[in-house]
Amino acid sequence: MNLIERAKNITLTPQTEWPVIAEESTTTASLYQHYIAPLSAIPVLASFIGMTLIGISLPLVGTIRTPILLGVTTLVLSFVLGLVAIYLISLIINALAPNFGGEKNPMQALKVTAYAFTPAWLAGILNIIPSLGMLGIIAAFYSFYVLYLGLPVLMKAPKEKAAAYTAVSVICSIVLMVVISTVVGAVGGASLYGAGALHSAQSEEAKGALGELEKMGKQMEDANKKMEAAKKSGDPQAEAKAAAEALGTVMGAGSQAEVVDKDKLKALFPDTIGGLKRSSLEGEKSAMGEFKISKADARYTDDNNHQIQVTVTDTGGSKMFGAMFAWGMMEQDKETDGGYEKMGKVNGRPTHERFQKDGSSGEYSLLVAGRFIVETHGQNVDMAAIKAASAAVGYDKLEAMKNDGAK
Questions:
Q1: I need a surface site. Which of 1, 289, 340, 369 has the fewest CB within 10 A?
Q2: Residue 233 lies in a domain
């Protein structure tokens, strides 16, 4: 198999290339070594060059670049989790095959997954110019089409069911990629985690994450059996419920507790914090399949432009989410002329804090009881005030709710 020829053929002439692929004999190791790893490296390397070496130019701000250490860390994590994602998606496609008249075949499932990703991987070169990275979305949709053409050939699903098979596979895959992107985005400092060097791969958190990833494949098998039974029953509601449970399995929701009501979370916020009055209080509950979250958000201000925003999110203790969160947390103690960033654990809780020395902004975030994320952002206040606002919601109250809604 010539990598360049295969990549060109599966992208330009997938209809004729899939039958050739179906007849090829290969191994998981060979496919990863000679095709998946080289091509999946394209978008992450391009992103590293684009964000770290070239940067993004913003009006009135200048060029923003990701620090080298952070860029390398993000690159490695993106690459490794990307390899894991391909295998997990192949497990999903394999498990779903009988529900759409196909035949289970793990090797064929891995092949159809890997080769269908080719257009998206090749388009990843656009990430060298960050402003063009969004064009990769078009390539992603084309990859869906390539997958649609490949499923009937490799998984032997009837053509009339290929569209539904593709749709369900894509939905499950997107959900999985969202979870993985949360980890990578966390490393990039987009939300909770900040940046830093990876903790030892032998840590309990890493082992737990890998264990949950392995369990998901087995859980999909169980979910598949339920879907088969529901299909035989001829009950549309039972089929819909089984499909929702399968989606929940991908999200790690099989072990998720029912989330705490948003009003109960809103009740955690006091009227004032450190002389700042509460100016707004909101709550919401969201769901994707069986995966649910609820959160409450409060903002505190005064007349001198001191501001603090506190958000409490309940993930329901999803094991997959918790494992990913723990794996994404890293140990770091970094200080520059402008500020500092720390990451690690405080009283056993994964914690991240970042602060600008001029007091213009800061944040303090942590995971409580393995399910509640408390995020606190401050402007024109010191870190002591930010931490006090975080603690004001009552970590002990959250700990007391850790088993609420447990199934």
A1: 1
A2: no
